[in-house]
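W.,

You were right to be curious about this one. When I first looked at the sequence I had no strong expectations either way, so I just let the prediction run and decided to look at it fresh. Below is the sequence, 126 residues in total, followed by the output.
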Amino acid sequence: MTISKTKSSISKAAMSKKESQQLLLDLILKTLEDMKAEDLVTYQLSEHSDIANIAIVCNGRSNRHVRSIASNLALAIKTSRLAKAKVENDPKGEWVLVDVGSIVVHMMQPEVRKYYDLDAFIKEVH
């Protein structure tokens, strides 16, 4: 196991920023798919934002589902060692944000997503 950790550290160091971001994006999308996130939309923001290059918005069916998606995503990112995930939790589980620097993931209940209309805001800025 130590050998693979060392090997992954070397691989990570040898990767370009773009390759690392693509691996992270692939991991995030796979995890969201595995967790049955719904209505997933990915926005490229690199030309329009200094905060993040990519925003992902998706739904969870309930507050428990939203929190579960977020915790599993944070664990997958931590385990991968590709980035550090900062989780901004809503205690009710209506909207949880996972920030990994170049990628920001918003997980929401459908009614909260509709109310705040984050997609329209991102499209307007985009």
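Here's what jumped out at me. The CA atoms of residues 19 and 79 lie 18 Å apart. And, maybe more interesting for your project: Residues 16-125 form a domain with the Beta Polymerase; domain 2 fold (CATH 3.30.460.10).

Coffee later to discuss?

I.
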